[in-house]
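hey so i finally got around to running the thing on that chain from the lab meeting. sorry it took forever, my laptop kept dying and i had to restart like 3 times. anyway pasting the input first so we r on the same page abt which one it is
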Amino acid sequence: MRLVIRNLAAVLAAVLIAALLDAYVSERAAVWWLGFVLVVYALSETAYLARLHHWATLPRNRSLPAGYGPWRALIARLSRFVRQEVDAQGELASELARIHAAVDQLPDGLVVLDRYDHVLWANDAAESLHGIFGTRRPIHHFIRQPELANLLASNEPGSSIRVELPGRPGRIYELLLHRAQGDQKLLITRDVTERAKLDAMRSDFVANVSHEIRTPVTVIAGFAETLLTLELDAEQRRQYLESILAQSLTMQRLVDDLLTISSLESDTQALDDEPVDVPALLERLVDEARALSAGRHEISLAIDGPRRVLASPGELESAVRNLLTNAIRYTSDGGRIAVDWRVQDAEGRISVRDTGIGIAPEHLPRLAERFYRVDRGRSRATGGTGLGLAIVKRILARHQGHLRFDSAPGRGSTFVLCLPAARLIPDAATAAQPPVAARTAAPADDNTTASEGAPIDQRPSSTSRSEPTGA
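ok and heres what got predicted. didnt touch it at all, straight out
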């Protein structure tokens, strides 16, 4: 309203002066006055409009011209609006910079594509993974996998592919495509190597369990069908029933081992630590091994370590029993098995050494895998499930220990359960006594495997042998 009043006052003043000139001077003077005022007003307005137009062509880099006369109030409001807009843009730029900085810290690669699959923006991870630089370049210039074209052409939301990137050997990446508003797309690159390994392990585990169960189930079903359909004498029926029982026991061992390893791998399974009498435990297990061997092997026990350790009695017994059972299974008749308990390199070590068939070097890296077998036929013939040393490995991990081994074909194998020094309980009453060899049925032959202090200790700490052992 003030602007209108000011403009009307200026017009009225010019008209009043023209009227005075007409009354006291002449009509011609009044006309010249009005003409002069109109020309000055038109020129000043034209000049100011030119300055406004000059500013409006590049408002971010030029200052708004100062207002005068009737323009002052309008320019003041426009100045406030410009300042608010500049402040809002500054805040928006700062927020966008913070978002970009946060997104650049993500391990996943993010790429925004336009409708023609050209790169609009990429975070640091995407630039590093795919070598992206600049914008408005086709994504195919950076990601050359043929599967990408099908992914980009797909209209399914959340579709993805798994690829190996040239600059990341041994890693598996998932390319996930999301459609944004309009015609833009968001391409996410995620490292799924560990997930792929877990998927493969899960698939292999299911396949292995199915394979292990299929054989005994087939045998049981075949013998049961024979018993139902054929007239057999008592001896034949007894043989078939014995085969059915043997196969059912194999399935029972497999189920028991699966339950055991599942229990050991459960995070909620607490470790029951208590003092364990190692010599008594080993003597009992060696007696069991001799009964299982039935005189086919020479089994010896030597003790040169503290009497007690802090451990779970059941788990430690299971670990040693697995190694002894494996040694008996894979050692020919007349072979020798030596069990030894001692402290070496600040570790408590229970070693089981045999003169069995041994293991070729190429199999050693995979011995920790469940169901892995060096010789599947021989393992099944001896009744192994392929889980024995996987159980041993987990037991040692729960006790903060590890398993060392040394083996070669025809030279036998040595497996050593290593317990940390923190689990050894010193026996003050016997600390000063000389080493005692306990219950030695036959001396261990140094030619059967590598000596205790050489290849075993030189070899890095390894995981357990999952088969050919496999109790």
